[in-house]
Amino acid sequence: MRKVLGTVTIFLLLTGVIPVTATDRWQPPPGTTWQWQLQGNIDTNKPVEVYDIDGFDAPDSKIATLKGKGIKLICYFSAGSWEDWRPDADDFPSSVKGNNNGWPGEKWLDIRNIAVLGPIMEVRMDLCKARGFDAIEPDNIDGYTNNTGFPLTAADQFAYNTFLAQAAHDRGLSIGLKNDIDQAVTLEPFFDFAINEQCFQYNECEPLLAFIDAGKAVFQVEYNLGLNKFCPQANEWEFSSMKKRLSLKAWSRPCR
Question: For 129, what's the count of Cα atoms within 13 Å in the CB-facing half-sphere?
Answer without folding.
Answer: 16
